Amino acid sequence: MTELSRDALLHAYRRMKTIREFEERLNLEIQKGGIPGFTHLYAGQEAVAVGVCAHLDAGDYIASTHRGHGHCIAKGCDVTGMMKEIYGRHDGLCKGKGGSMHIADVDQGMLGANAIVGGGPPLAVGAAIATRLQGEGRVTASFTGDGGSNQGTVFEAMNLAVVLKLPTVFVFEDNGYSEHTGAGYAVGSDDIASRAAGFGMPAEKADGCDFFAVYEAAGRAIRRAREGGGPSAVEFSTTRFFGHFVGDPQNYRAKDEVAHHRETRDCLKNFREQVIAGNRLAGDDLDAIDEEVLQLIDQSVAEAQASAPPDVGDVITDVYSHY
Amino acid sequence: MTELSRDALLHAYRRMKTIREFEERLNLEIQKGGIPGFTHLYAGQEAVAVGVCAHLDAGDYIASTHRGHGHCIAKGCDVTGMMKEIYGRHDGLCKGKGGSMHIADVDQGMLGANAIVGGGPPLAVGAAIATRLQGEGRVTASFTGDGGSNQGTVFEAMNLAVVLKLPTVFVFEDNGYSEHTGAGYAVGSDDIASRAAGFGMPAEKADGCDFFAVYEAAGRAIRRAREGGGPSAVEFSTTRFFGHFVGDPQNYRAKDEVAHHRETRDCLKNFREQVIAGNRLAGDDLDAIDEEVLQLIDQSVAEAQASAPPDVGDVITDVYSHY
Amino acid sequence: MSIKSYREALNEALFEEMRRDPSVIVLGEDVSGGAGGTSGTRDAAGGIFGVTKGLIGEFGDERVIDTPISESAIIGAGAGAAAAGLRPVAELMFADFVGVCLDQIYNQAAKFRYMFGGKMQCPLVIRTAMGAGMNMGAQHSQTIYPMLTAVPGLKIVVPSNAADAKGLLKTAIRDDDPVVFFEHKALYNKKGEVPDGDHAIPFGEADMPREGDDCTVVAIGRMVPFSEKAIDSLADQGISCDLVDPRTVSPLDTDLIFESLEHTGRLVVVDESPPRCSLASDIAGIVASEAFGSLRGPIRLVTAPHAPVPFARELERAYVPGPDRIAQAILEAVKG
Amino acid sequence: MSIKSYREALNEALFEEMRRDPSVIVLGEDVSGGAGGTSGTRDAAGGIFGVTKGLIGEFGDERVIDTPISESAIIGAGAGAAAAGLRPVAELMFADFVGVCLDQIYNQAAKFRYMFGGKMQCPLVIRTAMGAGMNMGAQHSQTIYPMLTAVPGLKIVVPSNAADAKGLLKTAIRDDDPVVFFEHKALYNKKGEVPDGDHAIPFGEADMPREGDDCTVVAIGRMVPFSEKAIDSLADQGISCDLVDPRTVSPLDTDLIFESLEHTGRLVVVDESPPRCSLASDIAGIVASEAFGSLRGPIRLVTAPHAPVPFARELERAYVPGPDRIAQAILEAVKG
Ligand SMILES: Cc1ncc(C[n+]2csc(CCOP(=O)(O)OP(=O)(O)O)c2C)c(N)n1
Ligand SMILES: Cc1ncc(C[n+]2csc(CCOP(=O)(O)OP(=O)(O)O)c2C)c(N)n1
Ligand SMILES: [Mg+2]
Ligand SMILES: [Mg+2]
């Protein structure tokens, strides 16, 4: 953690905490009703999104998944704009046309959440063709789950990236489940990293509940990409604190599993302990952020609830630039 | 080679020689005109198809590729029926509706050549679900080229086979090229076998120009599948004696490459030398087969040329069982 | 007869067919669920819409197969198993996912019989959930069936109610050709009278849930109940309509449509899909070429707009054709 | 003006656009060829139909990118590069291969702008070879464009001659939306007058290569030259027709079709695709709903049969609509 300045630590904590509270609050609001569609929460996996994106800036691109809120916040998307989008409001980040599974903000280098599992990696590979040609040492990264790691599009993207030696990183988040199916069943290989390594790129594994472990592993891969060393894969073992989507009865999980994970594998708890033990930050610093974040989320929910729905006339706009 | 009876050796040689002459003759006939479409010749790769299929009988299934003549003959398809199909005749194996890239004979366990690269492996995996359920120790195999090994469908098929522990074998034929592109460029990993091994199944490599090496390696994999040991991959390095299709100028190949391969990597020559050196067969045995094969091919071409085209009314038959 | 939901009717058809024929298997993502989970419970899902619930308990994991997220392998394996003698029912969780497995559907399964000269058959059923109405957004709400209706070799089924869901799924499983079976996710909870026991509805025979004199309405899937609402709402204006539910759009029962048109002379076609190359324009085109003489006025097409499916409630509601728009179109057809 | 083949016209458009705009790149299988080969020659292929020949020599392998056989990655990379500021021209070797990459075309590229509230654009061009006529069999001869015309967010181009091939490809590359560009493989060698230098044809403006009084013929792609033959063959019977070549089927220039129909009152639509949910039935359906009043008789649809494309010469010839069938349909329309 030495490498990280105090500001960087505070920034990372703020982002992780923002994701956590965003999702905890959504879980409540969705159960109250008022939020359309179905929503996949990222709580529990914050260290992955933030640990990876800590190495990226707006000129770098990421491609996300159906569980994209964390990636969006970590990459710098406006939290209130996101909340409004999830509520389906006219002034949401995507004018209410996308929703939870389709939040994008190209200005922040966020190429979009993606409701098609495995849809993102080919896009990140293509964005890397662009950033390399534009030649400013910019890189791209894709996020894929354990379940998504079995999708053919992801395998093709890895091979293409290796063939073209592109500046891109394949981030795999093993949260143990693909909907109702365990990763141990659906991923036939020993793990995702060894399978990725077989494609001919460096691949490593780290604890996705430890921000610093993520930060270090992702840093090595992203640095390699920036320096022209080609693509890499990083696999992070993590856990989701909620069901596959809000409303999932989770019959596939042992009764105490989530409680146990919240107890032992909470990346925010871990971070707090580590930075305090290492005398990098004081508890008060973090408590102050907790306060601000809670206010931000309250604020964003209030604004989202107060905001107007899209004009029905907009159902046919934005299909083409011109037609 | 000890394991193989004299009859088995004669049978293997006959099949390899039949493929060779079938393709050499097609190469001439196509240049003369009279054969529709475009045709991919298997000459040079005979040891792979025959060495694999020597372990299979009609109850076992194979899925083939666009370069399927060799797989068809090795699996027992009728040579004259094939020739008629390639000429587009009414009495071809597929009534002239399929052609060179779509020859199938389900009674022989031949699930079809396939003009979609990567189309076959998922089919072979599915056939293995069937053979296992039907429970007679039957197995399936798919053939895929070095180029096809980069197709997402093939990766998905491998993972699914591992997850379900299916009795199937993934045969990879590295003939050095995917159309006009070298395998060393398009396959990002060190080789195809190591990438397959990463999926969590046994994978080995052998010389695809040595019938006995193919026979041994394929035998291990197929035996494993029959005995419930699950899927395997085998990669064979081989070479094609002709262009990607008849008419390919082959600018991507060094001037002397094919001549050199015909000289040094001819699986038929190798076989002849090995069986004679090992005192397993006499040159006369093989010469006699050469004679018979040439007659068979002459005969099949003559019959094909003499046969009538399909009735144009058949353009709309065989779309459905009933509609 | 008993009252069942569309979901229950489908589930019953699967149980009955799997009991009847040991060559019937089910495969797909979470068709059972719980494999590799920490609770040890299988059947944790029974399909994310619950249609395959309970099957694994009776038929075991060799006939009820959970798969990774690998649609090309799922559909391809189904096609290969079908060619090798089974009658697989492969679940494509959402019809929108046809994008990651289309080849195995349309170049493989659909073409085997023809390409191979009639010598190979592929009795594969692909069950898939389609349609808008649940705010699932652009990639989880499409109808898709027009794309596959265009494919020779496929049979396309779009049940609009519980009884048809059961009767058509049984027929699909017994059919020797590949069938794509489109279940509208907004209909899963819809209840209706469902015949008990063996009830198989032949393909290519349309149903006529409403009969009348002034207009012929052809509607597909969820548009059928919406059209019933629309038609009933016009009764007090003295307007009555034939309502044709094709049930299978390939094969399509044009006879009943033409017959009805001879009587009414007016046609409204209702399709939840965007307009271009839709079932709406397809049926209109067929009528304009084969039954032109019966037409006494322009054909009215009621479809979604030429746009992806939006997320927000208000936008999706405006997107999906509803009873009001259908009634409006009928009025125009009758008056116009 | 100079005489060029359809292939040469496309190649010229690529050279001109890549020179004009450094953000234009080309990617696909063997678009150069020879990578990893033993001869050391690049540009060994220049695309298997030669359309991208010579590009790598001038623009290098960072802008002319050979790929593995991984269509989902090719199209997806094109879409991602487009979202990141390039103007990629991705080659899908045969249109039939849409089956292994449809998702990236129709759920990704086509929907970005809409799903993301108009804030992302995807100026991707997908060039692909379609159509029958070369005995390539069921999986290498399909037209495919009807499937993609159904997709909101895509623009669909189907040039029928060399001049249009050049002018429409330049427009496609400059367009800010995803465009699927269908090249008929039986037209690559067809020569015609091609304007030199900058020649861009706007989308949505149909062409009228024949003008007449008795019938309106709308034909697509290779069916345009076939329809010209058919129409010319009827001249001596005193029959003359308007021939409408939409050039882009999405957007579709319905104005010109309707205008012509007002004059002729008779419509024949010619499409190489099988009939169901084809462009033929789509255009017929649009006319029957929006221009019914102009119709003086049934619309004639000339299409391939509802069957895969067969291999044998005699069968394929019977499968593809030809000048005779088109002339026959015109006669029926005019007399009928
Ligand atoms: C192509 C495709 N197949 C299936 C689905 C349905 N689906 C949505 S999320 C999901 C599970 C994804 O698991 P994983 O990749 O591990 O991500 P996680 O949900 O755990 O974050 C599935 C099967 C989909 N959206 N797209
Ligand atoms: C999905 C798909 N992509 C591309 C092609 C065009 N194509 C036909 S054969 C071929 C090369 C295949 O190379 P390989 O797998 O090594 O087999 P080989 O030709 O060497 O036997 C290509 C690109 C195709 N038929 N299908
Ligand atoms: Mg997961
Ligand atoms: Mg090869």
UniProtKB/TrEMBL annotation, chains A, B:
<keyword id="KW-0560">Oxidoreductase</keyword>
<dbReference type="InterPro" id="IPR001017">
    <property type="entry name" value="DH_E1"/>
</dbReference>
<keyword id="KW-0786">Thiamine pyrophosphate</keyword>
<dbReference type="GO" id="GO:0004739">
    <property type="term" value="F:pyruvate dehydrogenase (acetyl-transferring) activity"/>
</dbReference>
<dbReference type="InterPro" id="IPR029061">
    <property type="entry name" value="THDP-binding"/>
</dbReference>
<dbReference type="Pfam" id="PF00676">
    <property type="entry name" value="E1_dh"/>
</dbReference>
<feature type="domain" description="Dehydrogenase E1 component">
    <location>
        <begin position="14"/>
        <end position="310"/>
    </location>
</feature>
<dbReference type="InterPro" id="IPR050642">
    <property type="entry name" value="PDH_E1_Alpha_Subunit"/>
</dbReference>
<protein>
    <submittedName>
        <fullName>Thiamine pyrophosphate-dependent dehydrogenase E1 component subunit alpha</fullName>
    </submittedName>
</protein>
<dbReference type="GO" id="GO:0006086">
    <property type="term" value="P:pyruvate decarboxylation to acetyl-CoA"/>
</dbReference>
From TrEMBL, chains C, D:
<dbReference type="InterPro" id="IPR033248">
    <property type="entry name" value="Transketolase_C"/>
</dbReference>
<dbReference type="InterPro" id="IPR029061">
    <property type="entry name" value="THDP-binding"/>
</dbReference>
<keyword id="KW-0786">Thiamine pyrophosphate</keyword>
<dbReference type="Pfam" id="PF02780">
    <property type="entry name" value="Transketolase_C"/>
</dbReference>
<dbReference type="InterPro" id="IPR005475">
    <property type="entry name" value="Transketolase-like_Pyr-bd"/>
</dbReference>
<dbReference type="GO" id="GO:0016491">
    <property type="term" value="F:oxidoreductase activity"/>
</dbReference>
<feature type="domain" description="Transketolase-like pyrimidine-binding">
    <location>
        <begin position="4"/>
        <end position="190"/>
    </location>
</feature>
<keyword id="KW-0560">Oxidoreductase</keyword>
<protein>
    <submittedName>
        <fullName>Alpha-ketoacid dehydrogenase subunit beta</fullName>
        <ecNumber>1.2.4.-</ecNumber>
    </submittedName>
</protein>
<dbReference type="Pfam" id="PF02779">
    <property type="entry name" value="Transket_pyr"/>
</dbReference>
<dbReference type="InterPro" id="IPR009014">
    <property type="entry name" value="Transketo_C/PFOR_II"/>
</dbReference>
